[in-house]
Inverse folding.
């Protein structure tokens, strides 16, 4: 069967095809390096120059120097092979830190994948329960396949997660409660003692998932983590990612921790180690204990958040307190997040638009300081555009 793939045709039609037709017919690394005609296709792997990309909660300061070195080594020596050994090495590192076994951990290509598997597993038994406003992309995965809608509980007046209301909403049809802490898109964090008490109580009735994607961005992250509850035998699963503080969003490495029984059930919906890649795992392994880079990233996030919050106040707006690498900005009673997003894009600043029914609320990530400066400078013109229209 013929397929139309312009990139493949262009690539094979150039120097690669010519080299492949040479007398040896073998492309070795040495041959590639020595061949001046072997051009690498020009691909844009990140935002174009002049674009402030502040819409996806990425850390543009990663991968760290140690991760970049590991990526190069892994790609050259192991890129041709499946990544089982590296996956097990990272799994063992995580297990050792939390006093768990390898069977308590599942590493996948980003936490989104294992979160989607958990959602599919849960909805094979019932429905997912969560607050009205949370990062629900993976919990929506079953819906796209004809599964049940998420059962939602209203947030409080200040947009906090109402743990008491969520607990009271658990019934026999709820197969999993989904909590993000810190929450996305609000950036708010729950009191760790209250969350722990909720998890212990709620997990007696159903499975509780806590997505801790932004935990490492908190200065005292371990005190806010629910991972210790797993070792204590509670019906809890916790998701983590290397996409945020480690700056590895494009390398796709995440993981979930839970009881052996829960992880075995969730993994039935997955692909095993075949979703993993050597370069991403190498970067994750090199980054995992890199406290200096984590401190550096937190400092950059704090600096950028201060710039955003100062600009918000100077422009007569307000924002929620944030424990993450983004800020949820209130554009006012007549604000329009989608219109603001469009007005910002016209100034080469990319941010998020409206979430659910929260029309005045606009989320902006903390990217490079120079990009955050573009956002700050663009606010007055963007506000003028949306209120003029």
């Amino acid at each position: 069967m013929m397929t139309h793939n312009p990139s493949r045709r262009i690539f094979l039609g150039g120097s690669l095809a010519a080299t492949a037709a040479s007398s040896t017919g073998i492309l070795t690394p040495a041959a590639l390096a020595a061949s001046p005609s072997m051009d690498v296709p020009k691909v844009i792997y990140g935002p174009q120059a002049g674009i402030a990309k502040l819409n996806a909660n990425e850390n543009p300061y990663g991968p760290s120097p140690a991760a970049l070195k590991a990526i190069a080594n892994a790609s050259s020596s192991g890129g041709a092979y499946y990544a089982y050994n590296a996956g097990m090495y990272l799994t063992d590192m995580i297990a050792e830190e939390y006093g768990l076994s390898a069977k308590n951990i599942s590493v996948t290509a980003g936490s989104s994948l294992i979160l989607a598997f958990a959602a599919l597993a849960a909805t094979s038994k019932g429905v997912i329960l969560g607050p009205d406003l949370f990062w629900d992309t993976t919990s929506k995965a079953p819906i796209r396949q004809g599964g049940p809608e998420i059962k939602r509980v209203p947030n409080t007046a200040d947009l906090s997660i109402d743990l008491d209301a969520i607990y009271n909403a658990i019934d026999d049809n709820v197969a999993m409660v989904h909590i993000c802490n810190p929450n996305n898109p609000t950036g708010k964090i729950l009191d760790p003692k209250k969350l722990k008490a909720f998890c212990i109580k709620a997990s007696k009735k159903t499975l509780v998932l806590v997505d801790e994607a932004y935990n490492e961005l908190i200065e005292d992250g371990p005190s806010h983590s629910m991972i210790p509850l797993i070792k204590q035998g509670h019906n809890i699963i916790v998701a983590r990612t290397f996409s945020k503080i480690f700056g590895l969003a494009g390398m796709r490495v995440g993981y979930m921790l839970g009881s052996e029984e829960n992880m075995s059930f969730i993994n039935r919906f997955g692909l095993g180690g075949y979703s993993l890649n050597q370069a991403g795992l190498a970067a994750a392994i090199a980054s995992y204990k890199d406290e200096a880079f984590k401190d550096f990233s937190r400092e950059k996030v704090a600096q950028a958040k201060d710039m955003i919050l100062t600009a918000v106040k100077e422009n007569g707006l307000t924002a929620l307190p944030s424990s993450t690498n983004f800020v949820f900005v209130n554009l006012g009673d007549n604000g329009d997040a989608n219109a603001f997003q469009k007005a910002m894009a016209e100034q080469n600043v990319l941010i998020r638009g409206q979430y659910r029914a929260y029309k005045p609320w606009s989320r902006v990530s903390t990217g490079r300081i120079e990009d955050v400066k573009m956002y700050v400078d663009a606010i007055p013109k963007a506000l003028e555009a949306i209120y003029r229209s």
Remarks:
- Residues 1-27 have pLDDT under 50 and may be disordered.
